[in-house]
Amino acid sequence: MGLAVFFGKYLSTWICGTGNTLPELMISLMNLESKTGICGNLILNSLNQIFAFAGAGFVYSILHGAAPGVGFSKAGKSRHRFTFLIGAVVITLGFSPFLDLTYRLNEWLLIEGSTLHTLAASLEAEVARITQALLQMETSKEFLATLVAVAVLPAICEEWFFRGTLQSIFSKWSGNIHIGIWVSAILFSTIHFQFFGFLPRLLLGAGFGYMVAASGSLWPAVLGHFVNNGVTVFAAWWFGPEWIAEGMNPGEGSLGLSEAIATGLGAASIIGSVWWLKGKTKPLKVHSQQPGPQEW
Can you tell me the distance from the alpha carbon of 143 to that of 162, in angstroms, rounded to the nearest whole number? Predict the structure, then answer.
């Protein structure tokens, strides 16, 4: 993260014109009403993904070499990887209605008026402000830059770190793939500092983890992650500021027949995809300090 700030200061000055000093950079980053501030945030976010998440994943992959569950290693991958890629897209899209439901549940569990709820609400408001600013795209160049920074790089870099590194570490330490999946998913959700969305992101991260475990490849999780983030970017580009303002808070609005139908269709697509992929799953081994290898 330090490297991202170091190089980001020079890159954002060169590309965005944010200023030559760190204080000038910070002032520009906080000014989300300007193109300069948005440009600087996109560059800092992209460099942070590359240096912090992909960097850690790359080092771990170098240290441990080609092994099942480590980075983009082909060791132990299923021969049905293309099928898993299709399944990842269907499952991710099918999960969209549940993001709304779990967001509402998450906010309800924090108890309105409590200190934790107040803190979470303030963090959520700040993240929403930044997200809405980044999704204000007027040109095709801005759309492509946002798509790379918000969807492409997070999909590759975060999956490399959380599913291709941390999941492997915790699975080996515990000798249990489920512990590895859920601990890495908890950390994945926590690091975003959006506590109204903690449960939705936790379940999404666990889903990506099981995709990796079932397919023996990181790519289905990368594609699912890209679809989840990319749909938001495409929708913001297509529908414009009105959609952004109305759609950023899934906890607002009432639940009706259309939401129930969407949830039912989503559940059916997830169950159908899991059933379809079940026979194509290739068990992997977790080599831990426990006696004998444990199956994933």
Answer: 27
